[in-house]
C-alpha cells in the first residue's frame, strides 16, 4: 500500500504533517505495511490535506483529512473522493507544466525520470544552440511572470551576444498576492525547474545559473537546495550535463523580502549584493545583466515549462491557446472563492468560467463584485467583463493585466475605495525610491484618496491626473501599474467613491 500525503506548504499549514505522523503511527501499531510518500500538492487547496491511497488499482483520494480521521481511513470506512484524477476540478485541466506536481516524490530523481523527466533535456543536449532557440520560439512561450515577453526572442538575444560568460537567472521572488504557482512547482517538482534552466543554459551558451528565491519560502528553499545537490550527483548538472560534453551548474540564492526585487533589474542588483533598486534600461539585462554579462531572466513557470516543450514538441504546445497567447496558463484562484487552488488550462478560458464554474463562486455565497487579476498591481475586473478570455492582448484590450495569473475574488461587501487606497499604500511602502513618480506619487495618491473618502469628489480629477503621471513616468512596473487597480476601481465602481461623500455629508 502506498499512501501519499502532501509536503506542500499549503497542505502543511492545514495539518498535513500531523496527518502523516498519525498515519505512520497507526499503521505501525496495526502491523500494516504501508509506504508513506510525501508528494507535492495537486492544487485543490480546499481539499487539503488530500490523502491518496494506492493499493495497485489507482490512487483514491480522501480529504480534507484530519488526524482524527486516520483510524477510519485505514479501516476503509472514510468516505472517498474517488480516483483523484476524476475529481471535476482536476479532470477538466490540461496539465503540462504541472503534470508531475502532486504525483511524484519531489526529491526522487528516478520517480521524475519514470514520469517523463529529463526527456526534454536529453533531446536539447543533442541539438545545436540555434535549434534549441528555434524550438522555444516555435512553441510561442511567453514570460509567465507578468510582462508576457516572447521567451525565444530573449534567449536569441543572449545567445547572439558576445561575452566570456553568460548567465541564467530564475526569478522566484513570487511576491504577488494570490499567487503560489512558483512555490508549488519548486516544492512539488523541483527537477523540472532545474531541467528547464539547464536547457536554457545549453541554448544560449550560459554555464551558470541562479535561482533568486524569496526568504519567505523556507520549504521551497530546502527542497530546491537538495534537488540541486541530487541533480549534480547524477550528472544532470555540472561540467558534463547528461554526458553531452556541455557544462551547466546552478545554485540557490535567497532574497530578503522586497517586493520590488521581483522586477528583473532590482533582482539583479540584489543578486550582486547591492541595494535592490531598479536600473534604467537600456542596457537590457539580455546584454548587460548579472555582473554586466548577458543574462536570461525568466520566471519559474516559464523555465519549468521548457522541458515539456522539448519532450512533446513545440507544435504540440503551440496548438493550445488563443491568439498570441500559446500553451497553458497556470491560474491561481484565491480570495473569497469556494474552490481555491491551481488550475492549468489552455489560454482562452473566460474570466467568468474561472470564477463561477471552476472556482464555484464566492465562499460567502454572496454575489461576486470584482476579481483582481495579476497581483496587487492588477486591475479590478467587474462582472460585466467576465466574458474576457485569458490572453495577454485580450486582457490588455479590456484594461486588465494577466501578470502571474493570480486571481483574487471579492464579493459585494468589498469597498473598492479602500481597495484603491491599499494599492497606493502598497506602492508607497514597497517603492525602491529610485524614481519620483513612484516614490512620491504613491504617497500623494494615498492622501488624494483620503480626500475623496472625506467627501471631496473634486479630488477624483487630481487622482486621475496623478495616475497618468505614474503610468507614464515610472521606471518600472511598480509605479507604472499601480494606476491599474486604482483607476479600475474608480471607473467600474464609482458608487463606492460617491458613498463616502454621502457619509461625510
TrEMBL record:
It comes from the Bacteria. Residues 417-462 form the NADH-ubiquinone oxidoreductase 51kDa subunit iron-sulphur binding domain. Keywords: 4Fe-4S, Iron, Iron-sulfur, Metal-binding. Its cofactor is FMN; [4Fe-4S] cluster. Gene3D superfamilies: 3.10.20.600, 6.10.250.1450, NADH-ubiquinone oxidoreductase 51kDa subunit, NADH-ubiquinone oxidoreductase 51kDa subunit, iron-sulphur binding domain. InterPro entries: NADH-UbQ_OxRdtase_51kDa_CS, Nuo51_FMN-bd, Nuo51_FMN-bd_sf, Nuop51_4Fe4S-bd, Nuop51_4Fe4S-bd_sf, Thioredoxin-like_sf. GO terms for molecular function: 4 iron, 4 sulfur cluster binding; FMN binding; metal ion binding; NADH dehydrogenase (ubiquinone) activity. Belongs to the complex I 51 kDa subunit family. This is Formate dehydrogenase. It comes from Paracoccus alkanivorans.
